[in-house]
Design goal:
Helices cover about 80% and strands about 0% of the residues. It starts with 12 loop residues before the first helix and ends with a helix. It has seven helices and no strands. With about 190 residues, the chain is mainly alpha-helical.
């Protein structure tokens, strides 16, 4: 029987990349005073990344969905800052996630009822969290976003364990971002 392979630091590249991303996110919190506007829609973006990978049926595409969904959110935020009335980033990103869910139906991804039901529930929960962030005061919105990030960290851990929908490297990367970012948002909300 072969000896079990020892984990190497190189095997944890998603964690290393996530730590750099967390440092950027915390730096952003220090630099700006608009955390609810920046991080609230990100909760739905995270759901959208999973939904896009699910629609495509290829777990590795979560890595491609990340820049795609981030770009969509950034465009919505820029348009909103330019006072384009229909470009509310909170509502807009939720609409995009719902459109991805409809694409999952169109691609008949509902045949695996358990996975489809779980992805649908996740989409609803993270969309509601995003919309609540928009509906409450900015300070409370930051706290709600923090809870959303922590909840998504649990979502990532579950997907890492089962190895479905997204590649394990993605769920590892995302969880390592979500948990410290969620904690940082809660700290900011309390200050």
């Amino acid at each position: 029987m072969a000896a079990p392979r020892r984990a190497r630091l190189a095997d944890r590249w998603p964690t290393a990349l996530a730590i750099v991303t967390v440092a950027f996110a915390i730096g952003l919190m220090v630099a700006v005073d608009d955390e609810a506007e920046l991080f609230g829609p990100s909760v739905a973006v995270m759901a959208g990344i999973y939904m896009l990978a699910y629609v495509l049926g290829r777990p590795w595409t979560a890595w491609l969905a990340f820049p795609v969904m981030s770009t969509v959110m950034s465009v919505l935020q820029v348009l909103h800052r330019l006072d384009v009335t229909w470009a509310d980033p909170f509502v807009g990103i939720v609409v995009v996630v719902v459109l991805l869910w409809l694409a999952a139906i169109a691609r008949r991804r509902f045949t695996d009822v358990d996975t489809f039901s779980l992805q649908t529930a996740g989409m609803v929960v993270f969309a509601v969290i995003t919309l609540v962030c928009a509906a409450v005061t900015p300070r409370l919105g930051v706290a709600v976003a923090g809870v959303g990030f922590l909840a998504h960290g649990l979502w990532d851990a579950y997907h890492f364990k089962v190895g479905k929908v997204v590649h394990r490297s993605w769920s590892e990367f995302c969880a390592v971002i979500d948990v410290p970012t969620g904690i940082a948002l809660l700290v900011v909300a309390l200050l």
